[in-house]
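To whoever picks this up:

The parser on our side crashed when reading a file containing two proteins. I've narrowed it down to the boundary between the first structure block and the second sequence. Both blocks are reproduced below exactly, byte for byte. First block:
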Amino acid sequence: MDIQMPEMDGIQATEIVTQRFPHIKIIMLTVLDDETHIFKAIQAGANGYILKDEPPKKLLEGIQDIIQGGAPMSAGIALKAMRLLRNPLEISENEVEAEKTNLTSRELDVLNQLCKGFDYKQIADFLNISPATVRKHIENIYFKLQVHNKVEAIQKATKQRLV
Protein backbone atom coordinates (compact mmCIF):
# COMPACT_ATOMS: atom_id res chain seq x y z
CA MET A 1 0.00 0.00 0.00
CA ASP A 2 1.38 3.39 -0.94
CA ILE A 3 0.59 6.35 1.32
CA GLN A 4 0.22 8.99 -1.37
CA MET A 5 -2.70 8.04 -3.59
CA PRO A 6 -5.21 10.24 -5.47
CA GLU A 7 -8.62 9.25 -4.07
CA MET A 8 -7.70 8.27 -0.52
CA ASP A 9 -4.37 8.11 1.24
CA GLY A 10 -2.92 4.70 1.97
CA ILE A 11 -3.18 5.14 5.72
CA GLN A 12 -6.96 5.60 5.49
CA ALA A 13 -7.20 2.71 3.04
CA THR A 14 -5.14 0.51 5.38
CA GLU A 15 -7.46 1.34 8.27
CA ILE A 16 -10.53 0.43 6.21
CA VAL A 17 -9.00 -2.80 4.89
CA THR A 18 -7.81 -3.96 8.33
CA GLN A 19 -11.22 -3.22 9.88
CA ARG A 20 -13.17 -5.06 7.19
CA PHE A 21 -10.66 -7.82 6.43
CA PRO A 22 -8.38 -8.31 9.46
CA HIS A 23 -6.76 -11.40 7.90
CA ILE A 24 -5.23 -9.31 5.08
CA LYS A 25 -1.64 -8.26 5.78
CA ILE A 26 -0.50 -4.87 4.53
CA ILE A 27 3.01 -3.62 3.84
CA MET A 28 3.38 0.11 3.33
CA LEU A 29 5.58 0.69 0.27
CA THR A 30 6.34 4.38 0.15
CA VAL A 31 8.95 7.13 -0.11
CA LEU A 32 7.72 8.74 3.11
CA ASP A 33 10.03 7.99 6.02
CA ASP A 34 9.00 10.54 8.63
CA GLU A 35 7.88 9.51 12.11
CA THR A 36 4.34 10.83 11.71
CA HIS A 37 3.58 8.67 8.67
CA ILE A 38 5.23 5.62 10.24
CA PHE A 39 3.24 6.11 13.44
CA LYS A 40 -0.07 6.62 11.65
CA ALA A 41 0.50 3.65 9.32
CA ILE A 42 1.23 1.31 12.22
CA GLN A 43 -1.80 2.62 14.13
CA ALA A 44 -3.95 2.05 11.04
CA GLY A 45 -2.90 -1.60 10.99
CA ALA A 46 0.08 -1.82 8.64
CA ASN A 47 2.09 -4.98 9.24
CA GLY A 48 5.25 -3.71 7.57
CA TYR A 49 6.86 -0.54 6.21
CA ILE A 50 9.33 -0.69 3.33
CA LEU A 51 10.76 2.26 1.45
CA LYS A 52 10.50 2.35 -2.35
CA ASP A 53 14.24 2.81 -2.74
CA GLU A 54 14.88 -0.70 -1.38
CA PRO A 55 15.90 -3.30 -3.98
CA PRO A 56 13.04 -5.50 -5.29
CA LYS A 57 14.59 -8.45 -3.44
CA LYS A 58 13.91 -6.65 -0.13
CA LEU A 59 10.20 -6.34 -1.02
CA LEU A 60 10.04 -10.04 -1.92
CA GLU A 61 11.71 -10.92 1.39
CA GLY A 62 9.22 -8.62 3.15
CA ILE A 63 6.26 -10.40 1.55
CA GLN A 64 7.69 -13.78 2.55
CA ASP A 65 8.38 -12.47 6.05
CA ILE A 66 4.84 -11.15 6.50
CA ILE A 67 3.37 -14.49 5.35
CA GLN A 68 5.37 -16.16 8.14
CA GLY A 69 4.04 -13.71 10.71
CA GLY A 70 6.84 -11.16 10.64
CA ALA A 71 6.77 -7.39 10.40
CA PRO A 72 9.17 -6.33 7.64
CA MET A 73 10.69 -2.87 7.76
CA SER A 74 13.46 -1.01 6.02
CA ALA A 75 16.40 -0.62 8.40
CA GLY A 76 15.93 3.15 8.72
CA ILE A 77 12.22 2.70 9.39
CA ALA A 78 12.92 0.12 12.10
CA LEU A 79 15.25 2.60 13.80
CA LYS A 80 12.59 5.33 13.68
CA ALA A 81 9.94 2.88 14.94
CA MET A 82 12.20 2.09 17.92
CA ARG A 83 12.52 5.81 18.64
CA LEU A 84 8.74 6.14 18.43
CA LEU A 85 8.33 3.37 21.01
CA ARG A 86 10.68 5.18 23.33
CA ASN A 87 9.19 8.63 22.72
CA PRO A 88 5.65 8.39 21.30
CA LEU A 89 4.44 11.24 19.11
CA GLU A 90 1.98 13.67 20.61
CA ILE A 91 -0.71 14.07 17.97
CA SER A 92 -3.67 16.20 18.95
CA GLU A 93 -7.24 14.99 18.34
CA ASN A 94 -7.78 17.94 15.99
CA GLU A 95 -4.83 16.86 13.84
CA VAL A 96 -6.16 13.30 13.73
CA GLU A 97 -9.66 14.45 12.74
CA ALA A 98 -8.28 16.88 10.17
CA GLU A 99 -6.19 14.08 8.74
CA LYS A 100 -9.24 11.82 8.53
CA THR A 101 -11.08 14.41 6.46
CA ASN A 102 -7.92 15.45 4.60
CA LEU A 103 -8.57 19.16 5.13
CA THR A 104 -5.59 21.33 4.35
CA SER A 105 -4.45 23.96 6.82
CA ARG A 106 -5.85 26.67 4.52
CA GLU A 107 -9.21 24.87 4.33
CA LEU A 108 -9.22 24.74 8.13
CA ASP A 109 -8.52 28.50 8.18
CA VAL A 110 -11.48 29.10 5.84
CA LEU A 111 -13.68 26.75 7.86
CA ASN A 112 -12.83 28.59 11.08
CA GLN A 113 -13.83 31.90 9.51
CA LEU A 114 -16.99 30.35 8.11
CA CYS A 115 -17.89 29.17 11.62
CA LYS A 116 -17.51 32.75 12.87
CA GLY A 117 -20.24 33.78 10.44
CA PHE A 118 -18.10 35.64 7.92
CA ASP A 119 -19.12 35.78 4.26
CA TYR A 120 -16.81 34.97 1.32
CA LYS A 121 -15.60 38.55 0.95
CA GLN A 122 -14.83 38.93 4.66
CA ILE A 123 -12.98 35.61 4.70
CA ALA A 124 -11.05 36.62 1.57
CA ASP A 125 -10.05 39.94 3.15
CA PHE A 126 -9.06 38.30 6.43
CA LEU A 127 -6.96 35.60 4.75
CA ASN A 128 -5.63 37.86 1.97
CA ILE A 129 -7.01 35.67 -0.82
CA SER A 130 -9.62 36.27 -3.50
CA PRO A 131 -13.33 35.51 -2.97
CA ALA A 132 -13.07 32.99 -5.83
CA THR A 133 -10.34 31.16 -3.92
CA VAL A 134 -12.52 31.18 -0.81
CA ARG A 135 -15.38 29.72 -2.86
CA LYS A 136 -13.09 26.95 -4.16
CA HIS A 137 -11.85 26.15 -0.64
CA ILE A 138 -15.44 25.95 0.57
CA GLU A 139 -16.36 23.61 -2.31
CA ASN A 140 -13.42 21.39 -1.29
CA ILE A 141 -14.49 21.52 2.37
CA TYR A 142 -18.06 20.49 1.46
CA PHE A 143 -16.73 17.63 -0.65
CA LYS A 144 -14.26 16.38 1.97
CA LEU A 145 -16.75 16.66 4.83
CA GLN A 146 -19.46 15.17 2.61
CA VAL A 147 -21.91 17.98 3.30
CA HIS A 148 -24.05 20.18 1.07
CA ASN A 149 -24.19 23.54 2.80
CA LYS A 150 -22.64 25.90 5.31
CA VAL A 151 -24.82 24.77 8.22
CA GLU A 152 -23.96 21.09 7.70
CA ALA A 153 -20.25 21.97 7.34
CA ILE A 154 -20.25 23.93 10.60
CA GLN A 155 -22.17 21.19 12.43
CA LYS A 156 -19.85 18.44 11.22
CA ALA A 157 -16.72 20.50 11.88
CA THR A 158 -17.92 21.22 15.40
CA LYS A 159 -18.85 17.58 16.03
CA GLN A 160 -15.43 16.41 14.81
CA ARG A 161 -13.76 19.20 16.77
CA LEU A 162 -12.06 20.60 13.68
CA VAL A 163 -12.92 24.12 14.84
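<<boundary where parser fails>>
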Amino acid sequence: MPPKIGYLLPTRERIMEGRPETASLLKLAEKASALGFDSIWVGDSLTARPRHDPLTLLAGVAGRIPGITIGTAVLLPMLRNPVILAHQVATLDQLADGNLILGVGFAADRPNIRAEFAAAGVPFEHRIGRMLEGLRLCKALWSGQPVDWDGRWQTSQAVIGPTPARPGGPLLWIGGNLAPSLDRAGKFFDGWFPIAPSAPDFGAGLAHVRNVAREHGRAPESVSGAMYLTLSLDDDADKADDRLNQFLVQYYGQPAPPTRRRQACYAGPAAGVAEWLNTYAEAGASHLVLRFAGDHERHLEAIAKAWQT
Protein backbone atom coordinates (compact mmCIF):
# COMPACT_ATOMS: atom_id res chain seq x y z
CA MET A 1 0.00 0.00 0.00
CA PRO A 2 1.54 3.36 -1.01
CA PRO A 3 2.26 5.82 1.80
CA LYS A 4 0.04 8.77 2.49
CA ILE A 5 1.46 12.13 1.47
CA GLY A 6 1.21 15.17 3.71
CA TYR A 7 1.96 18.85 3.12
CA LEU A 8 3.54 21.20 5.65
CA LEU A 9 2.10 24.72 5.48
CA PRO A 10 4.81 27.44 5.29
CA THR A 11 3.90 29.25 8.50
CA ARG A 12 7.49 30.03 9.46
CA GLU A 13 8.27 31.27 5.96
CA ARG A 14 5.24 33.56 5.87
CA ILE A 15 6.30 35.27 9.10
CA MET A 16 9.87 35.69 7.79
CA GLU A 17 8.43 37.26 4.62
CA GLY A 18 6.26 39.68 6.60
CA ARG A 19 3.07 38.05 5.26
CA PRO A 20 1.21 36.87 8.37
CA GLU A 21 -2.27 36.72 6.82
CA THR A 22 -3.81 33.27 6.98
CA ALA A 23 -6.01 33.37 3.88
CA SER A 24 -3.16 32.36 1.57
CA LEU A 25 -2.20 29.50 3.89
CA LEU A 26 -5.73 28.13 3.87
CA LYS A 27 -5.80 28.39 0.07
CA LEU A 28 -2.59 26.34 -0.10
CA ALA A 29 -4.22 23.74 2.14
CA GLU A 30 -7.24 23.62 -0.16
CA LYS A 31 -5.02 23.29 -3.23
CA ALA A 32 -3.08 20.43 -1.65
CA SER A 33 -6.32 18.64 -0.83
CA ALA A 34 -7.68 19.16 -4.34
CA LEU A 35 -4.45 17.71 -5.79
CA GLY A 36 -4.84 14.55 -3.72
CA PHE A 37 -2.60 15.18 -0.72
CA ASP A 38 -3.80 13.16 2.25
CA SER A 39 -2.95 15.48 5.13
CA ILE A 40 -2.07 19.05 6.13
CA TRP A 41 0.55 19.82 8.79
CA VAL A 42 1.74 22.83 10.78
CA GLY A 43 4.94 23.32 12.79
CA ASP A 44 5.31 24.89 16.23
CA SER A 45 7.46 27.54 17.87
CA LEU A 46 6.83 30.52 20.14
CA THR A 47 9.91 32.75 19.99
CA ALA A 48 12.73 30.58 18.64
CA ARG A 49 11.25 30.50 15.11
CA PRO A 50 8.09 32.63 15.26
CA ARG A 51 5.12 31.30 13.33
CA HIS A 52 1.35 30.83 13.55
CA ASP A 53 -0.03 28.83 16.45
CA PRO A 54 -0.49 25.30 15.04
CA LEU A 55 -3.65 24.28 16.90
CA THR A 56 -5.48 27.49 15.98
CA LEU A 57 -4.46 27.35 12.33
CA LEU A 58 -5.32 23.65 12.04
CA ALA A 59 -8.79 24.44 13.36
CA GLY A 60 -9.16 26.74 10.35
CA VAL A 61 -7.95 23.99 8.03
CA ALA A 62 -10.37 21.47 9.55
CA GLY A 63 -13.24 23.89 9.09
CA ARG A 64 -12.28 24.64 5.50
CA ILE A 65 -11.56 21.05 4.37
CA PRO A 66 -13.90 18.54 6.07
CA GLY A 67 -12.45 15.06 6.41
CA ILE A 68 -8.81 15.97 5.76
CA THR A 69 -6.23 14.55 8.16
CA ILE A 70 -4.42 17.32 10.04
CA GLY A 71 -1.30 17.15 12.17
CA THR A 72 1.44 18.96 14.06
CA ALA A 73 5.00 18.61 12.79
CA VAL A 74 5.92 18.93 15.52
CA LEU A 75 4.28 20.35 18.64
CA LEU A 76 6.29 21.12 21.79
CA PRO A 77 3.70 20.02 24.36
CA MET A 78 5.89 20.82 27.37
CA LEU A 79 5.50 24.55 26.63
CA ARG A 80 1.79 24.25 27.44
CA ASN A 81 -0.17 23.40 30.55
CA PRO A 82 -1.42 19.86 29.83
CA VAL A 83 -4.92 20.46 31.16
CA ILE A 84 -5.35 23.38 28.78
CA LEU A 85 -3.64 21.45 25.99
CA ALA A 86 -5.95 18.46 26.53
CA HIS A 87 -8.96 20.76 26.20
CA GLN A 88 -7.64 22.46 23.05
CA VAL A 89 -6.67 19.19 21.38
CA ALA A 90 -9.99 17.53 22.22
CA THR A 91 -11.86 20.43 20.64
CA LEU A 92 -9.60 20.36 17.58
CA ASP A 93 -10.10 16.61 17.21
CA GLN A 94 -13.85 17.16 17.25
CA LEU A 95 -13.48 19.77 14.49
CA ALA A 96 -11.38 17.26 12.52
CA ASP A 97 -13.87 14.39 13.05
CA GLY A 98 -11.14 12.35 14.72
CA ASN A 99 -8.60 12.93 11.94
CA LEU A 100 -5.93 14.64 14.05
CA ILE A 101 -2.38 13.34 14.51
CA LEU A 102 -0.37 14.99 17.25
CA GLY A 103 3.28 14.88 16.24
CA VAL A 104 5.42 15.94 19.20
CA GLY A 105 9.08 16.70 19.81
CA PHE A 106 11.36 17.29 22.76
CA ALA A 107 13.28 20.37 21.49
CA ALA A 108 16.97 20.55 20.61
CA ASP A 109 19.40 22.09 23.08
CA ARG A 110 20.13 25.42 21.39
CA PRO A 111 20.32 28.94 22.87
CA ASN A 112 17.22 30.24 21.06
CA ILE A 113 15.18 27.23 22.18
CA ARG A 114 16.36 27.56 25.78
CA ALA A 115 15.29 31.22 25.56
CA GLU A 116 11.90 30.09 24.22
CA PHE A 117 11.38 27.85 27.24
CA ALA A 118 12.39 30.69 29.55
CA ALA A 119 9.94 33.04 27.83
CA ALA A 120 7.16 30.49 28.41
CA GLY A 121 8.14 30.12 32.07
CA VAL A 122 9.03 26.44 31.60
CA PRO A 123 12.34 24.94 32.79
CA PHE A 124 14.37 23.47 29.96
CA GLU A 125 15.88 20.77 32.12
CA HIS A 126 13.85 17.57 32.51
CA ARG A 127 11.76 18.63 29.52
CA ILE A 128 11.39 15.05 28.28
CA GLY A 129 9.97 13.88 31.61
CA ARG A 130 7.69 16.94 31.59
CA MET A 131 6.50 16.08 28.09
CA LEU A 132 5.82 12.42 28.88
CA GLU A 133 3.96 13.19 32.10
CA GLY A 134 1.97 15.96 30.44
CA LEU A 135 0.88 13.64 27.63
CA ARG A 136 -0.12 10.96 30.15
CA LEU A 137 -2.27 13.54 31.90
CA CYS A 138 -3.80 14.57 28.56
CA LYS A 139 -4.69 10.95 27.78
CA ALA A 140 -6.24 10.52 31.22
CA LEU A 141 -8.38 13.62 30.67
CA TRP A 142 -9.35 12.46 27.16
CA SER A 143 -11.01 9.44 28.75
CA GLY A 144 -13.82 11.66 29.97
CA GLN A 145 -13.51 10.20 33.45
CA PRO A 146 -12.69 12.25 36.58
CA VAL A 147 -8.91 12.50 36.96
CA ASP A 148 -6.92 12.79 40.17
CA TRP A 149 -3.30 13.72 39.45
CA ASP A 150 -0.48 14.47 41.83
CA GLY A 151 2.73 15.24 39.97
CA ARG A 152 4.10 18.30 38.22
CA TRP A 153 0.43 19.25 37.94
CA GLN A 154 -2.38 18.54 40.39
CA THR A 155 -6.00 17.81 39.60
CA SER A 156 -8.85 16.58 41.73
CA GLN A 157 -11.73 14.83 39.96
CA ALA A 158 -11.00 16.94 36.87
CA VAL A 159 -13.18 16.38 33.81
CA ILE A 160 -12.86 18.12 30.45
CA GLY A 161 -15.48 18.43 27.77
CA PRO A 162 -15.61 17.68 24.96
CA THR A 163 -13.56 14.54 24.78
CA PRO A 164 -11.85 13.88 21.42
CA ALA A 165 -13.85 12.41 18.57
CA ARG A 166 -11.31 9.60 18.34
CA PRO A 167 -11.71 7.35 21.40
CA GLY A 168 -8.68 7.77 23.63
CA GLY A 169 -7.56 10.88 21.82
CA PRO A 170 -5.54 11.58 18.69
CA LEU A 171 -2.65 9.42 17.55
CA LEU A 172 0.63 10.51 19.16
CA TRP A 173 3.80 10.43 17.03
CA ILE A 174 7.28 11.38 18.22
CA GLY A 175 10.50 12.20 16.39
CA GLY A 176 14.14 11.73 17.29
CA ASN A 177 16.90 9.47 15.98
CA LEU A 178 19.02 8.49 18.98
CA ALA A 179 18.49 5.20 20.78
CA PRO A 180 16.56 6.72 23.73
CA SER A 181 14.18 8.38 21.25
CA LEU A 182 13.58 5.09 19.44
CA ASP A 183 12.95 3.37 22.76
CA ARG A 184 10.40 6.02 23.77
CA ALA A 185 8.62 5.67 20.43
CA GLY A 186 8.36 1.90 20.88
CA LYS A 187 7.23 2.06 24.50
CA PHE A 188 4.78 4.93 24.52
CA PHE A 189 3.78 6.29 21.09
CA ASP A 190 1.59 5.43 18.11
CA GLY A 191 4.18 6.46 15.54
CA TRP A 192 7.84 7.29 14.97
CA PHE A 193 8.23 10.54 13.02
CA PRO A 194 11.90 11.50 12.47
CA ILE A 195 13.46 14.14 10.23
CA ALA A 196 16.98 12.83 9.74
CA PRO A 197 17.60 9.27 8.58
CA SER A 198 18.36 8.03 5.10
CA ALA A 199 15.90 5.42 3.88
CA PRO A 200 18.07 2.45 4.99
CA ASP A 201 18.62 4.06 8.40
CA PHE A 202 14.90 4.74 8.65
CA GLY A 203 14.15 1.08 8.00
CA ALA A 204 16.62 0.00 10.68
CA GLY A 205 15.25 2.56 13.13
CA LEU A 206 11.67 1.48 12.55
CA ALA A 207 12.64 -2.15 13.12
CA HIS A 208 14.23 -1.12 16.43
CA VAL A 209 11.12 0.83 17.44
CA ARG A 210 8.87 -2.12 16.69
CA ASN A 211 11.14 -4.55 18.54
CA VAL A 212 10.91 -2.31 21.61
CA ALA A 213 7.12 -2.25 21.22
CA ARG A 214 7.05 -6.06 21.09
CA GLU A 215 9.25 -6.31 24.20
CA HIS A 216 6.77 -4.11 26.07
CA GLY A 217 3.72 -6.14 25.13
CA ARG A 218 2.56 -3.97 22.26
CA ALA A 219 1.69 -5.07 18.74
CA PRO A 220 4.74 -3.99 16.68
CA GLU A 221 2.69 -3.00 13.64
CA SER A 222 0.60 -0.68 15.82
CA VAL A 223 3.54 1.77 15.74
CA SER A 224 3.49 3.65 12.44
CA GLY A 225 6.57 4.89 10.61
CA ALA A 226 6.49 8.38 9.11
CA MET A 227 9.11 10.76 7.70
CA TYR A 228 9.45 14.56 7.57
CA LEU A 229 11.20 15.42 4.29
CA THR A 230 12.36 18.69 2.72
CA LEU A 231 12.21 19.08 -1.08
CA SER A 232 13.56 21.55 -3.63
CA LEU A 233 12.46 20.68 -7.17
CA ASP A 234 13.94 22.07 -10.38
CA ASP A 235 14.89 20.54 -13.72
CA ASP A 236 18.27 22.21 -13.18
CA ALA A 237 19.76 20.20 -10.30
CA ASP A 238 22.25 22.94 -9.42
CA LYS A 239 19.44 25.49 -9.11
CA ALA A 240 17.47 23.10 -6.93
CA ASP A 241 20.51 22.57 -4.71
CA ASP A 242 21.19 26.32 -4.41
CA ARG A 243 17.55 27.01 -3.59
CA LEU A 244 17.56 24.34 -0.88
CA ASN A 245 20.73 25.74 0.67
CA GLN A 246 19.37 29.28 0.68
CA PHE A 247 16.10 28.10 2.20
CA LEU A 248 17.83 26.26 5.05
CA VAL A 249 20.15 29.19 5.81
CA GLN A 250 17.22 31.62 5.98
CA TYR A 251 15.06 29.22 8.00
CA TYR A 252 17.61 28.17 10.60
CA GLY A 253 20.13 31.02 10.55
CA GLN A 254 23.09 28.68 10.17
CA PRO A 255 25.10 27.14 7.29
CA ALA A 256 23.24 24.63 5.16
CA PRO A 257 25.69 21.67 5.19
CA PRO A 258 25.29 20.72 8.87
CA THR A 259 21.52 21.13 8.59
CA ARG A 260 21.44 18.85 5.56
CA ARG A 261 23.38 16.24 7.51
CA ARG A 262 20.70 16.34 10.22
CA GLN A 263 17.67 16.39 7.92
CA ALA A 264 16.55 14.27 4.98
CA CYS A 265 16.44 16.50 1.89
CA TYR A 266 15.98 16.09 -1.86
CA ALA A 267 17.19 18.67 -4.40
CA GLY A 268 16.78 17.90 -8.08
CA PRO A 269 14.32 17.28 -10.91
CA ALA A 270 10.72 16.30 -10.23
CA ALA A 271 11.34 13.28 -12.45
CA GLY A 272 13.47 11.71 -9.72
CA VAL A 273 11.47 12.61 -6.65
CA ALA A 274 8.96 9.74 -6.77
CA GLU A 275 11.79 7.19 -6.81
CA TRP A 276 13.42 8.94 -3.82
CA LEU A 277 10.16 9.05 -1.88
CA ASN A 278 9.57 5.38 -2.67
CA THR A 279 12.82 4.43 -0.95
CA TYR A 280 11.19 5.52 2.32
CA ALA A 281 7.98 3.70 1.47
CA GLU A 282 9.98 0.53 0.83
CA ALA A 283 11.73 1.04 4.18
CA GLY A 284 8.35 0.99 5.93
CA ALA A 285 7.11 4.58 5.99
CA SER A 286 3.34 4.75 5.81
CA HIS A 287 3.17 8.57 5.82
CA LEU A 288 5.51 11.14 4.23
CA VAL A 289 5.19 14.78 5.30
CA LEU A 290 6.72 17.17 2.77
CA ARG A 291 8.18 20.62 3.34
CA PHE A 292 8.97 22.68 0.24
CA ALA A 293 11.81 25.15 -0.29
CA GLY A 294 9.76 27.99 -1.76
CA ASP A 295 7.26 28.22 -4.65
CA HIS A 296 4.66 26.07 -2.95
CA GLU A 297 2.04 25.99 -5.68
CA ARG A 298 4.57 24.74 -8.24
CA HIS A 299 5.90 22.15 -5.81
CA LEU A 300 2.41 20.91 -4.95
CA GLU A 301 1.57 20.45 -8.61
CA ALA A 302 4.90 18.77 -9.39
CA ILE A 303 4.59 16.29 -6.51
CA ALA A 304 0.99 15.48 -7.40
CA LYS A 305 1.98 14.77 -11.00
CA ALA A 306 5.10 12.78 -10.10
CA TRP A 307 3.33 10.69 -7.46
CA GLN A 308 0.32 9.89 -9.62
CA THR A 309 2.52 8.69 -12.49
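After patching the parser it read the second block fine. Residues 1-174 form a domain with the TIM Barrel fold (CATH 3.20.20.30). The first helix runs from residue 11 to 16.
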